[in-house]
């Protein structure tokens, strides 16, 4: 087994400890040529990933005009070949697991010897 295969196998084992089926809906916004934006929506190929809350302890409390709000940050551990891509202000990716909907806010691709071994997406719970 090569080191790349070892990284990928270890990632799969971690995911399988608490797996979720992830099916991302990707919305791409582009200039429609008339001063507005057009939206293209596609559903990406499903994959098995693992969602977990980032950090330790109680969620961060934010003081807002309407009162206190708790902010929890989540992360998605995904296999190297997961159909997930970089986000931007023109690309929005969301998915639902159970009753929770998440939005991908950032993507970290980990490579070893030039090959992708895993992907990690930072998430924001939207409902």
Can you walk through the features of this model?
The structure is a single chain. The chain is mainly beta and 127 residues long. The N and C termini lie far apart (42 Å). The mean pLDDT is 89. It has one helix and ten strands, in the order αββββββββββ. It has one domain (3-106, 113-125): Thrombin, subunit H. The strands form two sheets. It has an eight-stranded antiparallel sheet with strand order 1-4-7-10-9-8-2-3. Strands 5-6 form a two-stranded antiparallel ribbon. A hairpin with a 2-residue loop joins β8 (91-97) and β9.
List keywords for this structure.
127 residues, mainly beta, Thrombin, subunit H, 1 helix
SSE order and pairing:
Layout: H1 3-16, E1 20-22, E2 25-31, E3 37-43, E4 47-53, E5 60-64, E6 67-71, E7 73-79, E8 91-97, E9 100-112, E10 115-125
Antiparallel strand pairs: 1-4, 2-3, 2-8, 4-7, 5-6, 7-10, 8-9, 9-10
The biggest beta sheet reads: 8 strands, antiparallel
- Determine the structural class based on helices, strands and strand pairing: mainly beta
CATH topology (level 3) name = Thrombin, subunit H
Rg from Cα: 17 Å
Quaternary state reads single chain
The CATH class name reads Mainly Beta
- Strand order in the largest sheet: 1-4-7-10-9-8-2-3
| Silhouette | globular
Whole-number total of structural domains: 1
